[in-house]
Write a sequence for this structure.
């Protein structure tokens, strides 16, 4: 499995968690559990992706701009996650703010797959892309353990 297939696998999980969370009722235990699952998934994925995938793109002049853009989007989502964490999940405003995060997540993963991956395929050698998968998985596992 190459890095693109591996990242898409996480993206699908993120889309599913976002959809499931958006469908929860105010104050439900399911909302709290799904929120913790989504947070962990987004945070560990972003950190591993930045350290393995985007660091390789940034080494190439033709990949730097796209990598920086995606890392900036990760930062924006991290800030929004922190805001949501500080709020009461049963409040109506929490769901409204979550829907903003959901929109940002879906936009980000769609943009990565449609725009970033084609650029990455041009600047990252195919063998390196194949080797990245194991590094990504190891890094993500380390982030999960540290969380």
């Amino acid at each position: 499995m190459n890095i693109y297939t591996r990242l898409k696998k996480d993206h699908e999980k993120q889309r599913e968690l976002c959809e499931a969370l958006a469908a929860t009722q105010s104050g439900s235990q399911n909302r709290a559990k799904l929120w913790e699952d989504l947070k962990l998934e987004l945070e560990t994925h972003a950190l591993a992706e930045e350290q393995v995938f985007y660091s390789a793109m940034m080494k190439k002049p033709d990949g730097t701009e796209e990598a920086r853009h995606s890392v900036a989007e990760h930062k924006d989502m991290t800030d929004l996650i922190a805001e949501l964490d500080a709020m009461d999940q049963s409040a109506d405003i929490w769901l409204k703010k979550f829907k903003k995060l959901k929109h940002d997540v879906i936009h980000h993963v769609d943009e990565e797959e449609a725009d970033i991956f084609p650029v990455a395929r041009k600047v990252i050698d195919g063998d390196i892309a194949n080797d990245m998968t194991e590094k990504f998985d190891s890094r993500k596992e380390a982030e999960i353990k540290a969380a």
Q: What stands out?
A: The chain has one domain: 3-146. The mean pLDDT is 96.
